[in-house]
Structures are given as C-alpha cells and as structure tokens.
Amino acid sequence: MSPASEADLTCAGDALRRSHLYRQAMAYFRNGAVNRVNLHFGIQALAQGSGGLFTLVVLLRAGVSVPQALVAQAVILAFRFVFRPVVLPLAKRWGLRPLVIAGALGVACQYPLVPLVHGADRAFLAFCIVASIANAFYWASYHAYFAAVGDAEHRGRQIGVREAVAAVVGIIAPLVGAWLLLAIGPGWTFVAVGLVQALAAAPLLGAPDVPIRQIAPGAFHAARLGVAMFATDGWFVVCYSVVWQIALFGALGRSFAAYGGAMALAAAAGAVGGLLLGRHIDMGHGRRAAWLAYGIASAVVLLRAASLGSPWLAVVANVPGALVAALLTAALMAPVYNLAKAAPCPLRFHVALDGGWDIGGLFACLTAAAVVAAGGGLAIPLLLALPGAFVAVALLRRYYSNDVPGGIRPPAPPASR
C-alpha cells in the first residue's frame, strides 16, 4: 500500500472516531431533564457553599459546644429517618418533581433560623426540626428523580458533570460566604443564602415529572445491599467531613475568612476529579475507581488526623477534600442511580437507602460526641472513617463488574413468594 493510501485510511479512521465521539457527546447532552437537574444542583451548591458550609461553624461561634453540635446532627438524622416515610404517599399522589421542588424550598427555610441560635435554645431545636423535615423530603426525592431521568450508559459522566459544576461553584461560594459574614453579619447572610436556595427550584419548573407507582413489589428487596452501602457512607461522611469541619475551624482559630479560604482552595483542587472518574466508570472500570477513591480518602483521613493543632498543615490536609468528595460520589452514586432506575420504584429504593444513611450517620455522630465529651479529642472520630472506607470498598465490589458495559452488575431479581 502506498504512503498516500495509508494516509487516507488514517484520516478516514480519525474522522470516524471523531464522528463517534461527536454522536456520543450529543446523545449525552441531549438529555434536557438531566441538564435542568444539574443546573438546579449547581445553584443549590452555591447556597450550600456560601451558607450550608458555614452553618455548623456559625453554631459553634454562637455558643453551641462540639458535643452538642454533633448530638444536634444526630437529632436531625433521627428526625429525618422518622419523617421520610411521608414522602412516599405524597409522591404517589403528586409525582416526584413537585417533591424535589418542595424539598428545595424547605431547605431554604432552614437558613434564616441559623443566626437566631444562641446556644442550645429553642431556636436551636427549631432549626433541627426544620432541617430534618426539609432534608428528608429533598434528598430522597432528588436522588430518585436523578436516577429516573438519567441515562445508564452516561451515568458516570452525568454525575461527573454535576460534581464538576458543584466543585467550580465551590471555589467561589466559600469566599462569598466568608465575606458576607464579616461584612453584614450572619443575619442577612443566611437570609440571602435562603433566597439563593429557593431559586434553585426554578430550573425544575419546566422539567418532566416522574410518576410513582401505587404498588411496586420487590422495590425494598432490591435496595438491601444499597442500604448497607449507604449506612456505611453515612458513617464515613460524618467522620470524614462533619468532624473535620469542626476540627478545621478550630485549627484556624475559628476564623470565618481562613475557613472560607481553605474550603475554596480545596474546591479548586477538585473541580475535574469527578469528570475524569465518571468517564472511567462508564468505560467499565468501576472496581478500580472504587479502590482509587477510597484509597485516596483513607490517605487524606490519616493526614487530617495528623494535622490537628497545626493551622498550615490543616489547610494542606483540607486541600484534597473536594477532589475526594467528587471521586467518592462518582464511585458510589453511579451504580446506585443505575440500580435505582432498574428497581421497581426509584423513590422507594432511595427512601430505603437514605434511611440507611441516617442510621450510619446517627451512630457516627453519637460516637464522635461521646469521644469528645470524654476528652478524647477529634483525631479519634476522624480515624473512625477508615473502617467505613474498608467496608464501602467491599460492598462496592459486589455492585461493580469490569466485564459489564458501564461497569454495573444488574440487581438480582426478588425472591418469589
């Protein structure tokens, strides 16, 4: 074959590959419902980064002790567990999308209550109740809606885009939140954050609804392994993230400016992590992605535990935070969303899973509070994230299969009765 013919074949092959990639990209971005949900999540991330990220530390500055703050998180999770079953009958009557919108608006209502707290008082209890009800409605319905409208073959990339948007927003939001707290105080800051959170419902107004079946045999059976995985994630996230927020704030002298700057620096480091890992999962490398995500997370846990008492080392230990969060979300939620979509009912599936998360997180909060109250410090609760990481990898191996397209093993059918 002549060199010219070889060159022509090479050009033709490149054009074919480009065409295939173009069709893949167009198929991926053609899902308008996912685009709306990701836009909603980006606005929600702005509220979370500028206000939600500061909620716990503002409560600490208002006189709430560290054990009280951890017990309050446990109370919120307990109330969430109790209130969440109400979501199902409402969804069967109204559909899933209105519940996501109502949940987003309910989360907005929790923010103006934060500056009213002065220690463990009535305002503190009111905040815990409102936050628990709002989050019970929002997260179960949001996850079920994202699972239902997303595409299994593009799931990793769709989650990756969502997490990349949240990470980019997370670079700016903590700086804005810290500046507002210093410039206008917590009162107006959290009112503004509540308004931003309410605006997050706007992209969902034109999105399609997802009806919920009146009867869905086998829905909770399909969620059994997912419940175990989410319970493990609840334990891990409390030890890895919630306890660390308290430790970092203390290490930085309880400074809003330093805390916001550290969180913004971490977000900058994690802006592309979810995109890269999401594509890796879609190519069928889920097990490897799980090992990578939780391996890095375990190394960060050890660094964070060693950094307590040193402000500069604490900032260094915080830098990989957003990257690890993006990696963990991509590795965990890609199989969960696909299994939820394949289940008889995605909402029942996620109601069960979020209940598992609440149980794991509740026990982690109470354990951490007991350790701190006994004088054990925050390093021990941080290190308790490590067994959670080990169990999470073991459970994810049961979901992922490297020889299945998309890296997801389909759920086993429910046992006949």
General description of the model:
- The protein has 417 residues and is an all-alpha fold.
- The chain has a single domain, classed as Growth Hormone, Chain: A.
- The protein is 77% helix and 0% strand.
- The longest helix is centred in the middle third of the chain and has 45 residues, at 155-199.
Topology:
Elements: H1 3-29, H2 32-61, H3 66-83, H4 87-94, H5 96-110, H6 122-149, H7 155-199, H8 224-251, H9 256-269, H10 273-282, H11 286-307, H12 311-318, H13 321-342, H14 346-373, H15 379-383, H16 385-396
Helix pairs in contact: 2-7, 3-6, 3-14, 4-5, 5-6, 5-7, 6-13, 6-14, 7-9, 7-10, 7-13, 8-14, 8-16, 10-13, 11-12, 11-13, 11-16, 13-14
Task: Supply the key terms.
417 residues, mainly alpha, Growth Hormone, Chain: A, 16 helices, 77% helix, globular, disordered C terminus
Distance between the termini: 66 Å
- Describe the global form: globular
* Biggest β-sheet description: none
In total, the number of strands is 0
**What's the helical proportion of residues?**
over 70%
**CATH homology superfamily:** MFS general substrate transporter like domains
At the first level of CATH, what is the class?
Answer: Mainly Alpha
Query: From the 3D coordinates, which CATH architecture would you assign?
Result: Up-down Bundle
Rg measurement, Å: 22 Å
Structural class: mainly alpha
Mean pLDDT reading: 81
State the CATH topology: Growth Hormone, Chain: A
How much of the polypeptide forms β-strand, as a percent range?
under 5%
Number of domains: 1
Any low-confidence stretches, pLDDT <50, length ≥5?
A: 2-28, 402-417
| Secondary-structure element pattern, one letter each | HHHHHHHHHHHHHHHH
Count of discrete alpha- or pi-helical segments spanning 4 or more residues: 16
